[in-house]
Specification:
This protein has 404 residues and is mainly α. Helix content is 67%, strand content 3%. The protein has one domain.
């Protein structure tokens, strides 16, 4: 048997990309899928770059380079992309609900279909980490270490709970003006930081803060944000408001949580996080036409389709992949950029070299658990790509072809 050559491998990849491109419905808005892929990969890379597990006396503790090097705060501006995900989520859910209602699909059936795609993959994550947690505790592992690992692995679930709640509320909030939840966030922050209200009041922003980009996505679905002016207003207004809040109102410059900080922009969301999200949404809207043109290239579209088809698996397992690499690396001692304290730029340089290893570990997780995202493979362990007539409103978590 002849060994595959690099040229034949590349030709096979190109042929597969063209098949994916041909199987995608003509009416699908590929910019939506590109934005979703960008948001997912931004979260993954952000966590891998600013989250660290430091080996200290046999225990593992969480740390962040932002804690020791505040000058790296702009990294969080690049990789904190949750607002874009909620923008796309609101857009897709609104279109999906409108289309389902037009076909006479009951709300309960529509919601059950969407939530099953969100939570079915979660069962595998919870099952594995239940076994891992029990095994670690029975082996005598320090409770603080077990708690750190489990908390890090399950941290993506908070996002899913908020996203599921907003999805369920789509018929109620689809026509809500984004200024209303923005006003709630503003008043909550005024009460917390200006009048000394309890910190617990801030958790109102967990819903109100992410409702802002979600309702922007609904407005996009209704065709209200098609003009470039809307994108520019959001981008420039959001950027100016965020700069003012950071420079003169005392909000943190980092758009992600930093261990030991008295205030986090995400835990719960602050006004600065929401205005920053407005700027991100504005930029996303301005990039739509360019993304649509870029996605006409079969290779680019196939890559985006692959990420979208595995979005939940990537999102749920990326922290586990990082921790598996960290735990395995302990067998070789304290490795720089993996177990050492992230307090200088040498750590950053080493960390960048670990990213491909994290990606490889995530690929292993993807291979093992991707079946839970789209159902088990067809009989015989094979799947086939088929053309689907569904439009972008009908499939929230996948792109282009579907596997059956």
């Amino acid at each position: 048997m002849r060994e595959p050559t690099p040229r034949s491998t590349w030709d096979g990849i190109r042929r597969a990309a063209h098949r994916v491109d041909a199987a995608t419905p003509a009416g699908r808005d590929r910019a939506v899928d590109a934005l979703r892929a960008f948001a997912i990969l931004g979260v993954v890379l952000g966590h891998w770059l600013v989250s660290a597990l430091v080996a200290d006396g046999g225990n593992l503790q969480t740390a962040s380079p932002l804690q020791h090097m505040p000058r790296l705060a702009p990294i969080s501006w690049l990789f904190q992309t949750l607002a874009v995900f909620f923008l796309v989520g609101g857009h897709v859910a609104t279109r999906g609900h409108t289309a389902a209602r037009a076909r006479g699909v009951p709300y309960r059936s529509w919601l059950a279909s969407r939530l099953s795609r969100l939570f079915t993959p979660v069962a595998a994550l919870l099952a594995l980490w239940t076994v891992v947690t029990v095994a670690l505790l029975c082996s005598g592992t320090d409770y603080a270490t077990v708690r750190t690992l489990a908390k890090l692995a399950l941290s993506p679930l908070w996002f899913l709970l908020v996203f599921a709640a907003l999805t369920a509320a789509t018929p109620l909030v689809a026509r809500l003006n984004p200024l209303w939840p923005l006003a709630v966030v503003l008043h909550v922050d005024l009460l917390r930081f200006g009048l000394g209200a309890p910190h617990s009041l801030g958790w109102l922003n967990l819903a109100a803060g992410w409702l802002v980009p979600y309702t922007l996505g609904a407005a996009w679905a209704r065709g209200e944000l098609e003009r470039p002016r809307a994108g520019w207003v959001l981008l420039l207004g959001g950027a100016a408001a965020t700069a003012g809040l950071v420079l003169w109102a005392g909000y943190p410059a980092s758009m992600v949580g930093v261990p030991g900080a008295s205030v986090s922009n995400l835990d719960p969301p602050t006004l600065a996080a929401v205005t920053f999200g407005l700027a991100q949404c504005g930029l996303a809207l301005l990039l739509r036409d360019r993304l649509r043109r870029a996605m006409r290239r079969p290779l680019a579209w196939a890559a985006v389709a692959l990420v979208n088809l595995s979005a939940m698996t990537i999102f749920l397992w990326h922290q586990t992949a990082m921790m598996a690499t960290t735990a395995t690396g302990l067998l070789a001692g304290r490795l720089p950029g993996l177990h050492t304290r992230p307090d200088d730029f040498v750590w950053v340089a080493y960390r960048l070299t670990w990213l491909p290893v994290f990606a490889l570990a995530l690929t292993v997780c993807w291979t093992a658990f991707r079946a839970y995202e789209h159902g088990r493979p067809a009989e015989g362990g094979r799947s086939r790509v088929v053309r689907t007539g569904r439009g972008p409103a009908d499939r929230a978590g996948t792109a282009g072809p579907r596997r059956v």
